[in-house]
């Protein structure tokens, strides 16, 4: 069974869509082929996708593009898309973010799972790392329950650069400095399948995603903690990268 892949174009929408479609194809190619009896009746390797949806700008764009693919060009390649919103309980706005996620997923006609997690305030690894660990545990829990093939996240080029700098500051070696990989295996998601962590937009800048969100007239929430420069990632994003942008335009792509 064939499908029509979106064409490469200069617009943010086309670029984001094509990168996402290519990643879905990669995951489909890794899946065991359907039985001979099913071959003529169903797509060979439809992918069951779980998408991390915080309600922020980046994950909003990711769910929107997935929802559009599911309804149009890739409806035979994507078996299902389920959004997962992790409630960390760290912000006074957390309950409002849940309501926003519910409203948006209803508009997209995408099922939503809300997972509430406990994040220790005084974890030895730091509250950011503790929240990230709790988030991925919740995502993997839902993925196993739904027998998902892949967890998709909206990490982008700016995230990749920030992670590289964090690893460099911590004295990481070459493996650590490789930062974020676009597709990697997590663990078994079922008896015959492996769970993939997919980050299709690692070559896409935050500005490109913002342009897509603006053009599509999407609404999102802003995490108030993003401005807190006591956290290393926020310090790099808000105070270190802007001077580099001013000093050498185009350095991010390089």
Overview of the molecule:
This protein has 254 residues and is of the alpha/beta class. Helix content is 44%, strand content 14%. It is built from eight helices and six strands. It has helices at residues 12-30, 57-71, 94-108, 127-146, 157-169, 174-177, 206-216, 232-247, and strands at residues 47-52, 78-87, 112-116, 150-152, 183-188, 194-198. The chain has a six-stranded mixed β-sheet, with helices on both faces. Strand 2 (78-87), helix 3 and strand 3 (112-116) form a beta-alpha-beta unit. Helix 1 packs across helix 2 (57-71), helix 2 packs across helix 7 (206-216) and helix 5 packs across helix 8. The longest helix has 20 residues, at 127-146. The N and C termini lie far apart (39 Å). The model is unreliable at 188-192 (pLDDT under 50).
Radius of gyration: 19 Å
Query: How would you name the oligomeric state of the polypeptide chains in this document?
Result: single chain
Fraction in beta strands: 5-15%
Supply the helix-strand structural class. Answer: alpha/beta
* Major β-sheet annotation: 6 strands, mixed
Low-confidence stretches: 188-192
What percent of residues adopt helix (DSSP H or I)? 40-55%
Integer average pLDDT? 84
Secondary-structure element sequence? HEHEHEHEHHEEHH
What's the shape?
Answer: globular
Amino-to-carboxy terminus distance: 39 Å
- For the largest beta sheet, what order do the strands appear in spatially? 3-2-1-4-6-5
Give the number of DSSP strands. 6
The tally of helices reads 8
């Amino acid at each position: 069974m064939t499908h029509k892949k979106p064409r490469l174009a200069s617009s943010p929408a086309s670029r984001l869509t094509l990168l996402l479609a290519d990643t879905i194809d990669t995951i489909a190619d890794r899946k065991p082929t359907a039985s001979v009896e099913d071959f003529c009746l169903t797509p060979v390797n439809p992918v069951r996708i779980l998408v991390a949806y915080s309600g922020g700008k980046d994950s909003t764009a990711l769910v929107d593009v997935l929802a559009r693919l599911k309804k149009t060009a890739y409806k035979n390649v994507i078996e299902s898309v389920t959004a997962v919103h992790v409630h960390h309980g760290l912000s006074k706005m957390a309950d409002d973010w849940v309501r926003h996620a519910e409203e948006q997923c209803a508009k997209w006609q995408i099922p939503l799972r809300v997972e509430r997690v406990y994040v220790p305030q005084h974890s030895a690894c730091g509250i950011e790392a503790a929240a990230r660990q709790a988030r991925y545990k919740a995502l993997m829990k839902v993925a196993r329950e739904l027998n998902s093939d892949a967890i998709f996240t909206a990490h982008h080029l700016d995230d990749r650069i920030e992670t590289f700098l964090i690893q460099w500051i911590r004295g990481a070696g070459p493996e650590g400095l490789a930062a974020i990989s676009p597709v990697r295996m997590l663990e078994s998601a079922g008896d015959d399948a492996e769970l993939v962590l997919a980050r299709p937009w690692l070559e896409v800048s935050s500005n490109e995603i913002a342009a897509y969100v603006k053009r599509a007239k999407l609404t999102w929430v802003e995490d108030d903690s993003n401005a807190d420069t006591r956290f290393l990632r926020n310090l790099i994003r808000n105070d270190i990268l802007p001077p580099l942008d001013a000093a050498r335009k185009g350095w991010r792509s390089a």
